[in-house]
Automatic annotation (TrEMBL):
Record flagged with keyword Isomerase: no
UniProt keyword terms in alphabetical order: NADP, Oxidoreductase
Record protein name field: 3-oxoacyl-(Acyl-carrier-protein) reductase
Organism in which the protein naturally occurs: Talaromyces pinophilus
Keyword flag Membrane: no
PANTHER family listed in its UniProt record: DEHYDROGENASE_REDUCTASE SDR FAMILY PROTEIN 7-LIKE (PTHR43391:SF14), RETINOL DEHYDROGENASE-RELATED (PTHR43391)
InterPro entries reported for this sequence: NAD(P)-bd_dom_sf, SDR_fam
Source organism phylogeny: Eukaryota, Fungi, Dikarya, Ascomycota, Pezizomycotina
Length: 244
C-alpha cells in the first residue's frame, strides 16, 4: 500500500519502513508528488527482527513522541504446496513476516501510544477465508491477523481493524490473478485513511475489504454491531444454550 492517500490527508508526518531502502525512496517520492509539504521519514526496517523494530520506534519517539496510526503492510506469500510436500522454512516464513512482524510493530506502537487515541490497520486478505491446502501457510497467517484484531479490540483508545486491500497487482499477488486485479492502491489507501476517523471506529475488531462501500457500512452500523458481523468466531450453539 502506497502512502499517497495519507499524504493527501496532510498529516504532520509519515514514517515509512521496509527492508528495501531503494523502494523506500520511491515510496517517498510518490507521497511527495501528492503533498510536497508533508514530512516523510524513511527507516529501513526488518519487521521480523525485534531490535530493528525497536530502532524504528525509537526514531518515531525521538522525532515525534509517538505515532497516531500504524499500518502493518509488510507481507509475504510463500511455500505454496501441500503440507506433506512443504519446506517448513518456506511455510513458516508466512508467520515470521505476516504474524510475528505485526506483533512486534504493534507492541512498540502501543508502548508509545499510551492512553492517547490511535488506530492500527493490519493488512490481511480475503485469503483468510480460503480453504485450499496448497495455500495454507499464507491463509492461516492472514486469519491469525484477523483474530488478533478481535482480541485487541477491548482497548477503548485504540481501533484495530483487519483490512483486505482488494485485488491489486503487486509482488505478492501471483500473475495468474492479475486479470482479476481491478482494484487500486489508491482504493486501499483511501479506505485506510477512512478507518482512522471517528466514523469508522465501530469497525474495530472487525474485517473489512477495501472494495466494500463504506457508506453502506455506516448505514448498517447498528446491524453490524448488534449481530456481531465482520468478526471471526464459531457459528453454532454450544453448551447449555443448545437446550434452549
Amino acid at each position: 500500500m502506497q502512502p499517497r492517500q495519507f499524504a493527501r490527508a496532510k498529516p504532520k508526518a509519515i514514517v515509512i519502513a521496509a527492508r528495501n531502502a531503494e523502494k523506500l525512496k520511491e515510496t517517498e517520492a510518490l507521497a511527495l508528488e501528492v503533498e510536497p509539504t508533508v514530512e516523510i521519514v524513511r527507516v529501513p526496517t526488518d519487521v521480523t527482527k525485534e531490535d530493528s523494530v525497536k530502532s524504528l520506534f525509537d526514531t518515531v519517539q525521538q522525532k515525534f513522541g509517538r505515532a497516531d496510526v500504524l499500518v502493518n503492510n509488510a507481507g509475504v506469500s510463500v511455500g505454496h504446496t501441500n503440507v506433506d510436500m512443504m519446506e517448513l522454512d518456506d511455510y513458516w516464513q508466512n508467520f515470521e513476516v505476516n504474524v510475528k512482524g505485526v506483533l512486534l510493530t504493534t507492541k512498540y506502537f502501543l508502548r508509545l501510544l499510551g492512553d492517547a487515541t490511535g488506530t492500527i490497520i493490519n493488512i490481511s486478505s480475503q485469503a483468510a477465508w480460503n480453504e485450499p491446502e496448497v495455500s495454507a501457510g499464507y491463509c492461516l497467517s492472514k486469519l491469525a491477523i484477523v483474530k488478533l484484531c478481535r482480541q485487541m479490540s477491548w482497548r477503548p483508545n485504540v481501533s484495530v481493524v483487519a483490512l483486505h486491500p482488494g485485488t491489486v497487482k503487486s509482488d505478492i499477488v501471483p500473475e495468474f490473478f492479475w486479470r482479476f486485479a481491478e482494484d487500486t492502491p489508491a482504493l486501499a489507501g483511501g479506505t485506510a485513511v477512512w478507518l482512522t476517523t471517528e466514523e469508522a471506529r465501530f469497525m474495530s475488531g472487525r474485517f473489512i475489504s477495501a472494495n466494500w462501500c463504506v457508506k453502506e457500512l455506516v448505514a448498517r452500523k447498528e446491524e453490524i454491531e448488534q449481530e456481531g458481523l465482520c468478526k471471526v468466531g464459531m457459528i453454532g450453539t454450544v453448551g447449555l444454550d443448545q437446550f434452549k
